[in-house]
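Amino Acid Chain and Its Fold in Token Form
===========================================
Scope: a single protein chain, as residues and as a discrete description of its fold.
Amino acid sequence: labelled as such and written in the usual single-letter residue code.
Position: the record begins directly beneath this header, with no further notes in between.
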Amino acid sequence: MNVYIPILILNLLYLKIFCIKFDIESGKERCIGDEVNKDILVKGQYKVSSQPGGQLHVSIYDSKHSTLYSQKNKDNGEFSFSTDDFDIFKVCFKSFSGTLQKRTVFLDIKFGSEAKDYKEMAELEKLKPLDVKLKMVQDLSKEIVKNFDELAVQERKMNQTNESTHSRILYLSIFSIVCVIGLAVWQAMYLKKYFRTRKLID
């Protein structure tokens, strides 16, 4: 019983799963995207309502528009991939049919330890149930630490960006003030010379 308590706590701290349902019209494409950290396993499955004579294209792209998965004319399927770096991926569905009838898409995606098949791991490595639970806790702990490290790196980058932005604003403000003062001095000298030429002042 004690093993389930930390597992529940860790799942509350770091749990990334999403299930979504949406409709897609014929001839149109709809994409769902999310960001993923480095070295994260992503697994998903989809199911689309069948339609006589209808065709379906499913594709997954990263931020560089490289194809991670592609499947045509299949109403259901599974996919999995691992990330080499922090990236944003998107899953795109495109329906083709001779009618205007909408098709319903069910999409289920899991990340990290949630995407791992611990049952298969237990069978292959002949692990006891307690060992499997401990393995889950260990994997979740690593992901939490890694996630906090990523957040710390992003925070440092944001601080550096803010400091750089503040410095640029300061230099730009000083430059603007110098320009305004210089323009005012030049204008005063020009007007003084103009008035002297017109003999309006001594």
